[in-house]
Amino acid sequence: MLKIAWSPIFAHPLPEGHRFPMEKYLLLPEQLKYEGTATEDNFFVPEDMDEKWILNTHDSGYWEKLKNLTLSKSEIRKTGFPLSEGLVKREVHIMSGSIQAALYAKEFGVGMNIAGGTHHAYADRGEGFCLLNDLAITANYLIDHQIAKKVLIIDLDVHQGNGTASIFQDKPEVFTFSMHGKSNYPMHKEKSDLDVGLPDKIEDEAYLKKLNESLDLILGSFTPDFILYQSGVDILKSDKLGRLSVSLEGVKTRDKTVLELAKSLEVPIMCCMGGGYSPMIRDIIEAHAQVYRLAQEIYF
């Protein structure tokens, strides 16, 4: 059965006028249920997680400041979010959701998190709407529990997974792959194991060609036994922050490529949402919904 992490806390309210589309976390599960892609049985509310798994990835000093709400104004500004107890609780539940979705992936082949993909969080700081890094926390959890020996992180958000790259720069058990807009945020890119910087306005054919070439290159030297997939949809032509020109059908083909790869390798895959900032919320929801439909089609 497809299992999807979701909690109302994922849609933690932000001040009016904030540009981050929190409503998508409420609308997406309703859309999936409305169209029949998922039922209530497919969703699970993440349990509380032991903070030792946060500290296994993040610096203790940073975590203490975060949970005690003592980040400086400059540190808060870099996250893009107004700091609050509710926001920190939300972030911890997202982390737990990705870990638990990965455990379901081990059982069923695929597991999903309606939130997550918080790839801009470094070990010692938050950035770009990311306070903690669920991809890194989950990868470390899988390795430390001997659930996986070699984890491949496929990050296809339009923005480079700079925090993830930094965290794993000296850990060969984790391969970080980021395919992103080369002229987009962050302006200072970290070094992933494989970075593919894309030009502005790239369209479906060239984008998918780059993706397939990159996956072939990775598998020529790295054999994963677990995949974590950051499936951001800010590569859409309509996205106000993305600057690329990939169509809705192109996003679907991208997601299908990644899921079918994991299925063919018989490697569990955990998918987390990532970014999406199209002006029309229906475009964001439709783009995100595709990966859940494909997971049902390919695995179940």
From TrEMBL:
Listed InterPro entries: HDAC_classIV, HDACs, His_deacetylse_dom, His_deacetylse_dom_sf, Ureohydrolase_dom_sf
One Pfam match: Hist_deacetyl
UniProt xrefs under SUPFAM superfamilies: Arginase/deacetylase
Entry keyword Cell membrane: no
Record domain Histone deacetylase: where: 18-282
Key words of the record: Hydrolase
Similarity annotation: Belongs to the histone deacetylase family.
Protein name per its UniProtKB record: Histone deacetylase
Lineage: Bacteria, Pseudomonadati, Bacteroidota, Cytophagia, Cytophagales
